Amino acid sequence: MHFDSQLRQSYRRGVTVLTLEELAEQTPPGTPWLGLDLGEKTIGVAVSDTTRIIASPLQLIRKTKFTDDANAVLKLMDGRKASGLVIGLPLNMDGSEGPRAQSCRAFARNLQRIRTVPCVFQDERLSTSAVERFLIEELDLNRKRRANVVDRTAAAWILQGALDRLRV
Question: Has keyword Transcription (predicted)?
Fold first, then answer.
């Protein structure tokens, strides 16, 4: 199934998810977006600049319970005056959705129950492995140092991918 058609299916599943173009149209110019890499134990967070050209790693949230995790994300949005979210969607290599993708959709759906937040899903296949490879080959970081930066760097990779797609 094509990724854009999967986004459209999000509407039918009760999640208010936009296309990337709709996110750009519906969020105020000059406001950044946050990118999220939703892992099992952590949430990597990245932020764009106000021109939405460059994404930078921001923070790592250690997951506890959903309400606390959601409030931490919303607090970061408020603090940065971010107007939208780009959430990594970990699709399988064949484009299908597994349990991790369903978990990401559930996070977005539950977040919308707390506050309506404009968001889009971004295909994140291989983002973590690409970031790991970069951290090893280019920055020569050891395993412990990589563990501290990989998730927020993956969030930046996901957000940057969305920003780049807008400029194409």
Answer: no
Q: What CATH code is carried by the domain that includes residue 60?
A: 3.30.420.140
Count up the domains in the chain and report the number.
1
Question: What's the pLDDT tens digit per position in 65-121?
Answer: 999 999 999 999 999 999 999 999 988 778 788 899 999 999 999 999 999 999 999
Task: Please answer whether residues 101 and 135 qualify as being in contact, where contact means their C-beta atoms are separated by less than 8 angstroms.
Answer: no
Q: What is the pTM of this model?
A: 0.80
Beta bridge partners of 98: none
Q: Which two tokens stand for residue 147?
A: 């563990």
Please choose, from the candidates 2, 4, 36, the residue with its C-alpha nearest in 3D space to the C-alpha of residue 117.
36
Q: Which domain holds residue 125?
A: 3-167
Q: Which residues contact 34 (CB under 8 A, 6 or more apart)?
A: 45, 46, 47, 48, 58, 73, 76, 77, 80, 82, 84, 85, 86, 159
